[in-house]
Amino acid sequence: VVAFWSRFCAPALWQLEPLERLHRAFAGRGIRLLTITAEPPSFEMRKFLVERGLTFPVFHDTRGEAARAFGQWSTPEYYVLDASGRVRFQLSSLEEIPRQVAALQVQPVLARSGSRPARPAATSGR
Predict the structure, then answer these.
(1) Mean of the pLDDT values across residues 27-42?
(2) Which helix (H) or strand (E) holds 58?
(3) pLDDT for 55-97, tens place per residue?
(4) ∠118-119-120 over CA atoms, to 5°?
(5) Distance between CA atoms of residues 43 and 52, nearest Å
(6) What mean pLDDT comes out for the span 37-53?
(7) For 53, which of 61, 113, 121, 122 is 20 to 30 Å away at the CA?
(8) CA 110, CA 40: separation in Å to the nearest integer?
(9) Number of C-beta neighbours around residue 29 at 10 A
(10) Cα separation of 56 and 37, whole Å?
(11) What is the pTM of this model?
């Protein structure tokens, strides 16, 4: 899960606590959450994170490379990637992320078991 945020965006700030809860819930299940901000590392940023009890990883995209790679220009924005790094859910809401992650976790289980999702029965068109 990749989350773009900014300390200067009120909607992004409102979502930091729920984002931290997701990070903690996912950590025990081997799911990674990475947050990205355009702000450079600083004492103020570290203080901000500590004061709010935020422990998720923060990547400082000061050159905008991650933002350009994702085609991202506002915050907050969320992306759910599959195990190979492909974006599977884009611009998702924070509330949808657990369901999206769960959907991606089902696919590898099906592939390993040799099962395939059921296909709808063919119709004759008559």
Answers:
(1) 94
(2) strand 58-60
(3) 999 999 999 999 999 998 889 999 999 988 999 998 778 889 9
(4) 120
(5) 14
(6) 97
(7) 61
(8) 42
(9) 8
(10) 12
(11) 0.80
